[in-house]
Amino acid sequence: MSDRIFAAVWLVVCLLLMVVGWGIQSEFSYEPVGPRAYPMLLLGLMLACSLAMALRPGEKADWPEKPVLIRIVLMILALLVYALLFEPLGFALATALMSVAIGRLFEGKWLHCVVGGAGLGFGLFYFFDRLLDVPLPAGLIFG
């Protein structure tokens, strides 16, 4: 039953995000399909998967244990904080901090999480911003 509840909640979330995503407009046209195509495609795929999960026949699924649920809630909170800090701190620093938080949730050592988070944040920033020319927010510190 827990998988059906999750699928129903995710279905509603996808529908709400599709309403928001439909309003995405760009000042100028930089690609033939516009900026809303990618989010709408991903949301449509997630919507189809949640429908399949909700309607599939199957046996009863069990809820995860309490420590797993706590980790899931903490991961969701980390992603929300990441979304809030993305523009003020910039892509590199926000991604590095989020990577450290997620690494610690999976019981990574502090040194590994910090080095991996810094490498991921700044490496991805360089890759997307410099090599692929995808504009990312630099933030207050680096902007």
Mass-distribution shape: flat
Strand content: under 5%
Gyration radius (Cα, Å) is 19 Å
The total tally of domains equals 2
Structural class: mainly alpha
Largest sheet: none
DSSP helical segment count: 6
Percent helix range: over 70%
Distance between the termini: 48 Å
Series of H and E elements? HHHHHH
Q: Which regions contain 5 or more consecutive residues with pLDDT less than 50?
A: none
**Average pLDDT score:** 85
The number of strands is: 0
Protein architecture, described:
73% of the residues lie in helices and 0% in strands. It is an all-alpha fold. It has two domains: 2-55; 66-142, no CATH class. Helix 1 runs antiparallel to helix 2, helix 3 (66-89) packs antiparallel against helix 4 and helix 4 runs antiparallel to helix 5 (110-131). The termini are far apart. The mean pLDDT is 85.
Helix and strand arrangement:
Layout: H1 2-22, H2 37-55, H3 66-89, H4 91-105, H5 110-131, H6 139-142
Helix pairs in contact: 1-2, 3-4, 4-5
